Each structure stands twice: as structure tokens, then as C-alpha cells.
């Protein structure tokens, strides 16, 4: 997962502070590589091997993992363990050279990753390993680093094993960047590890890509189309790399890992054929998690953000246990799982251990992207100790989150940015996107519809609404709120969306307080306004009641995904029913 990010020393700094102050320890055994100062590039270019001989693969049940301490690699660890493999972590260049199988799950930005590889001797060891046709699998950035160079914060030289330059997607072509979601592969012959994909979708999340050329065509095992054709996987001999995330691509992704780990495994049966042809619309299951009055962590659901039962007891609505529900939604076909910790604003985030445990346990058996939000902000505890939002986010990433959702803190940052016109770099949104990349940061917007008589009545973006207000008003603006919808702010959803995109958000989760829990459909006016105004993906949320509401929002707006909660929790509408309906309406989905 490549990113526009700060040097790895920034990550290390946050990890050192976190480790020394809170007893939370960095999980990466190779994070010691990051304790070196960034002192220039020093990249060397290696000549691409002209021919590779295929070696017999090892029958050992262990795999060597090059984890240099950035982002979420818990998922690839969990996937490997799920497939019955133990993990050896790279500590020295010699560990690479001695590996029977090597997986490089690249996370972070191109330049800092190359710095780490060069200054630790890993770059030369990797090139020697690959030139000797040893079993290798690079994932996302682990593919990009094999090329000659990248334009990301560059140009920056890569390992130089494959001809070509890694460049950014061209958003002027009408596509949304980052490329986030489930897309189709055009698989070539002799791809080997893709033999069981069977024309089904796999999960991508990236802003940079490598383009096919005459010089690198012999390496390419598959391509993908997103505004243009780009390289989605390479293979030469025992050397493989993929731009997508197999550890986040469900059973299809596990089949890719299984094929790499067992290259001689005979096909027991023809893989189930899918109908993947392009980027699919995503269906996301959301779990609002909080402690109930008994202290148990439960999934609840609000009615216009009120999560308590309308009864004499007035108890928190309990719809199930978060880990169990997430596991069931994964089996039911959810494309992503989103956890919203709605007690996060009351409690100290790093002390919110139950939510950390939810992520850790969920990620053991759920192999689709996980997002977590709630309480991710800077904080000063009672003793005066300051914790940055980056430290809070780091612990969530290490616990299995792929994306972080920021709410109230993003509103305050946007207000300040609009007022001053200056990016301070200090907001949680800016800090996290700078280190982990904008594809790892979702901004959750909680607006409320405010009707007006005339577009000039307020200094915010006003639209003509489909359904007039209670007094016949034909216009409305959408006022953003904070603190779980309890406080309105002097900023509209349109203004907020534009500002957070500029500040580094990679995706917008667009809620609507008026529609929440009503089951009457998404606010199409709102979703169209925001999805037409930004160049990043928008997730429609709030109001789904029937499968037809999903097809409506996808047909009438440019939403990339649609999210629901209550109708899934209460088993009123199964996820599979939603996808079958979307297929009938000729809307591409992952099946």
C-alpha cells in the first residue's frame, strides 16, 4: 500500500513515544531498521535478469516475512497462519538470502521504503534473492519497488529489476484517486498463483501504478483497467508480485497466497467462475460499537443517532457481539467492515482496550478491509502526558485496521483551514495521511439538513432539494455536526468535503442525521452534491431500508460504495440479497 507519506523516521518517532509511555509495544520485529536517520537516497540500480531458472520449492511450513514496521501487516500474518504457515521475521540481510519463501508486504511510501532497504543492506539482498529465482511474493508497494523508479515524491530510484516507471493515476481522466475497491484482472498465461482467481474481483488500494510496455511485457502476468491498463501482477520463474492485496481479497485472495505457498498443488477442481469486468460498487456493513449499561461491548444502532430503546428501562440497544457479527458479514459477502466506536469521545482512546481486542480478533478470520473510527484524536491525560492522534492511529493499525475514520477532529481542522488558508500539518487528518497515506484515512461527515427560502440566505453551498421542507422551502444546506450529532458547526458538508480532500483524506463516509434509521433511502440530493464535488471515493450512508435503495444511490449519484447497519443487524435484508438485486440492475458487484 504505497502512500504519500513522511519519512519512516516519523513513524519510528511515534512508535518510540507510544512504546515508552504506554506499555504498548510495536509489533514489527524488523522495526529496528527504522531507527536509522534518513541521510539521502543512495539507491543503486540492478540489471534485470535475462533468464531465470525455476528452482524446486521448499516443502517447509514456514514463510519469511519482510516487515519493516509501517502500517497494517497483521492481516498478512493472520492470512498466513490461517493457511497453516508459521512466520519467520527478517532481522538481517542474511535472513533474506536464507529464506525458503519470502513475502514482502510493502506498506508506506516508495522513497522511505527504498531508504530503509538501502541503508540496512536489504536492497542488495533482495536483488540477489530475486535474481537467483528464489520464491518471492511482493504485495502492493512490494511490487512497485521492483521497478526502475517512482514519481511518488520523486523521481526516486527503485530496485531496477523490472523496466518501467511507477507513476500516479491521472485523475483528469475522470477516475477517483486513490483507486480503492474490488476490481477485475485480465490474467495472462502461466500466471500460476492466479490460477484459482476464476475471473473474480480482488481488492486494490493505491494511488500509483506501473504501466505495461514492450520492455516489461515479459514480466506481466495480469493487468487491470482503471482509466487505463496498469500492471496488476508480475511473474518470472518463482518470482511473483501483485499490486492488489490478497490478504484483503477474501477467499479469492487466500487462493493466491495458497498457490504461492504450494506452487505444485494440483487443482482439485475448476475454480468458481465469476463475472468480474470492472471496478465494483462496494456494499459495506457498519457496526456501531459501545459499552452497554452492564459494561459489555455490544453492537447497537441509532434512530437519528439515539441508540437507546424507547422503553421504561431506556437501555442501550443490543444487536449482537461485534466480533461474531463481523465474521458473519464477511461470510455473507460484505466488501468491507466498518467499526464505529461511539463511546470513543468519552474515553481515552489508548485505554480503550476492548476495541483493540475487537480488531485483533476480527482480523484473524476476516479477510476484507477493516475500518475503525471514534476517539482518534490528540489527547492529554490527567497526568499531563500528551498523545498524538498518530500514536492512537498507529495502535489501531497494528491491531488490524486498514483504514481510520475521523469525524469531529476533521471538522475542526477543516474550519481552521478554511479560515486561515494554511495547512498546519498538525491535525489528526494531516498527520495520519502524511505517514500512512491518504488511502488509509476516511473522513466521516455527519450533516443535518437545514431548509432555507433562498440560496443567498446562508454563506454555505445551498441546493434545490427534491422534497420541499415543512414550510414549502425549496432549498437547503447541510450543516455539519460534531460529538455524535449533538453540536452543529458553522460549516456545510460541501465546504467540509472540499477542505478535507485538500488536507489529505482519501475517502469520505457521508452520513445524514435526518435519514439515519428511517429506512426510507439515502439522501440522494446530499450524496450527489458531495460525490460530484470531490475527486476521492464517497461512501453513501444512512437510510437504507430495502435493496432498491442501494441501486438508486448508485444510479443517481457517483457514490463508490453504500453502507448499512440496522437492516443487516436485524436480518431484515441480507447482504447477498442486496448484491443479487444490484446484479439484476446491471450494477457491477463482487459476488
Automatic annotation (TrEMBL):
Reactions performed catalytically: 5-[(5-phospho-1-deoxy-D-ribulos-1-ylimino)methylamino]-1-(5-phospho-beta-D-ribosyl)imidazole-4-carboxamide + L-glutamine = D-erythro-1-(imidazol-4-yl)glycerol 3-phosphate + 5-amino-1-(5-phospho-beta-D-ribosyl)imidazole-4-carboxamide + L-glutamate + H(+); L-glutamine + H2O = L-glutamate + NH4(+)
Glutamine amidotransferase domain residues: 65-260
EC number(s) given by UniProt: 3.5.1.2
Keywords (A to Z) from UniProt: Amino-acid biosynthesis, Chloroplast, Glutamine amidotransferase, Histidine biosynthesis, Hydrolase, Lyase, Multifunctional enzyme, Plastid
Top-level taxon: Eukaryota
Pathway in which this enzyme or protein is active: Amino-acid biosynthesis; L-histidine biosynthesis; L-histidine from 5-phospho-alpha-D-ribose 1-diphosphate: step 5/9
PROSITE patterns: GATASE_TYPE_1
Localisation: Plastid, Chloroplast
Any one of the GO BP annotations: L-histidine biosynthetic process
Keyword Iron applies: no
CDD domains: GATase1_IGP_Synthase, HisF
GO molecular function, one term: glutaminase activity
Pfam families reported in the protein's UniProt record: GATase, His_biosynth
Statement: the UniProt record of this protein carries the keyword Plastid: yes
Function: IGPS catalyzes the conversion of PRFAR and glutamine to IGP, AICAR and glutamate. The glutaminase domain produces the ammonia necessary for the cyclase domain to produce IGP and AICAR from PRFAR. The ammonia is channeled to the active site of the cyclase domain.
Family: Belongs to the HisA/HisF family.
PANTHER family linked to this entry: IMIDAZOLE GLYCEROL PHOSPHATE SYNTHASE HISHF (PTHR21235:SF2), IMIDAZOLE GLYCEROL PHOSPHATE SYNTHASE SUBUNIT HISF/H IGP SYNTHASE SUBUNIT HISF/H (PTHR21235)
Protein name: Imidazole glycerol phosphate synthase hisHF
Native organism: Arabidopsis suecica (Swedish thale-cress)
Amino acid at each position: 500500500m504505497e502512500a504519500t507519506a513522511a519519512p519512516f523516521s516519523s513513524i519510528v518517532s511515534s512508535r518510540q513515544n507510544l512504546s515508552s509511555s504506554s506499555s504498548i509495544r510495536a509489533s514489527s520485529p524488523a522495526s529496528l531498521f527504522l531507527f536509522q536517520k534518513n541521510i539521502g537516497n543512495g539507491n543503486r540500480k540492478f540489471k534485470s535478469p535475462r533468464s531465470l531458472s525455476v528452482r524446486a520449492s521448499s516443502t517447509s511450513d514456514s514463510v519469511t516475512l519482510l516487515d519493516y514496521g509501517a502500517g497494517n501487516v497483521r492481516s498478512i500474518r493472520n492470512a498466513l497462519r490461517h493457511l497453516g504457515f508459521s512466520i519467520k521475521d527478517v532481522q538481517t540481510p542474511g535472513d533474506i538470502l536464507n529464506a525458503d519463501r519470502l513475502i514482502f508486504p510493502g506498506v508506506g511510501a516508495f522513497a522511505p521504503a527504498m531508504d530503509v532497504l538501502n541503508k540496512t543492506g536489504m536492497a542488495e539482498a533482495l536483488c540477489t534473492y530475486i535474481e537467483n529465482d528464489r520464491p518471492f511474493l511482493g504485495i502492493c508497494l512490494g511490487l512497485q519497488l521492483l521497478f526502475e523508479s517512482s514519481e511518488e515524491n520523486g523521481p526516486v530510484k527503485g530496485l531496477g529489476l523490472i523496466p518501467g516507471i511507477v507513476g500516479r493515476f491521472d485523475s483528469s481522466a475522470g477516475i477517483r484517486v486513490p483507486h480503492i475497491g474490488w476490481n477485475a484482472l485480465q490474467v495472462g498465461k502461466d500466471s500460476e498463483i492466479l490460477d484459482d482467481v476464476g475471473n473474480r474481483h480482488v481488492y486494490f488500494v493505491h494511488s500509483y501504478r506501473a504501466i505495461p510496455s514492450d520492455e516489461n511485457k515479459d514480466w506481466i502476468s495480469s493487468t487491470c483497467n482503471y482509466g487505463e491498463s496498469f500492471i496488476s501482477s508480475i511473474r518470472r520463474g518463482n518470482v511473483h508480485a501483485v499490486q492488489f492485496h490478497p490478504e484483503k481479497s477474501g477467499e479469492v485472495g487466500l487462493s493466491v497466497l495458497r498457490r504461492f505457498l504450494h506452487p505444485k498443488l494440483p487443482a482439485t477442481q475448476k475454480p468458481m467462475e465469476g463475472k468480474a469486468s470492472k471496478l465494483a460498487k462496494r456494499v459495506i456493513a457498519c457496526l456501531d460499537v459501545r459499552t452497554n449499561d452492564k459494561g459489555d461491548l455490544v453492537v447497537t444502532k441509532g434512530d437519528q443517532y439515539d441508540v437507546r430503546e424507547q422503553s421504561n428501562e431506556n437501555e442501550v440497544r443490543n444487536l449482537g457481539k461485534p466480533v461474531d457479527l463481523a465474521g458473519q458479514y464477511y461470510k455473507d459477502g460484505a466488501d468491507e467492515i466498518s467499526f464505529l466506536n461511539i463511546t470513543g469521545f468519552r474515553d481515552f482512546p489508548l485505554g480503550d482496550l476492548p476495541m483493540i481486542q475487537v480488531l485483533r480478533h476480527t482480523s484473524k478470520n476476516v479477510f476484507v478491509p477493516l475500518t475503525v473510527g471514534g476517539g482518534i484524536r490528540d489527547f492529554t491525560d490527567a497526568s499531563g502526558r500528551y498523545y498524538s492522534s498518530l500514536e492512537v492511529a498507529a495502535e489501531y493499525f497494528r491491531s488490524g485496521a486498514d483504514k481510520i475514520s475521523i469525524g469531529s477532529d476533521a471538522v475542526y481542522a477543516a474550519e481552521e483551514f478554511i479560515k486561515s488558508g494554511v495547512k498546519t500539518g498538525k491535525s489528526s487528518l494531516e498527520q495520519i495521511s502524511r505517514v500512512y497515506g491518504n488511502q488509509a484515512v476516511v473522513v466521516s461527515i455527519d450533516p443535518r439538513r437545514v431548509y432555507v427560502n433562498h440560496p443567498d440566505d446562508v454563506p454555505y453551498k445551498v441546493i434545490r432539494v427534491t422534497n420541499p421542507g415543512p414550510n414549502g422551502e425549496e432549498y437547503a444546506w447541510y450543516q455539519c455536526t460534531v460529538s455524535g450529532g449533538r453540536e452543529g458547526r458553522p460549516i456545510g458538508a460541501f465546504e467540509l468535503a472540499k477542505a478535507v480532500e485538500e488536507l489529505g483524506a482519501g475517502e469520505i463516509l457521508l452520513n445524514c442525521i435526518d435519514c439515519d434509521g428511517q429506512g426510507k433511502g439515502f439522501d440522494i440530493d446530499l450524496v450527489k452534491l458531495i460525490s460530484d464535488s470531490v475527486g476521492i471515493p464517497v461512501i453513501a450512508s444512512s437510510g437504507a431500508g430495502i435493496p432498491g435503495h442501494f441501486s438508486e444511490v448508485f444510479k443517481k449519484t457517483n457514490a463508490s460504495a453504500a453502507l448499512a447497519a440496522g437492516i443487516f443487524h436485524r436480518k431484515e435484508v441480507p447482504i447477498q440479497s442486496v448484491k443479487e438485486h444490484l446484479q439484476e440492475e446491471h450494477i457491477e458487484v463482487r459476488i
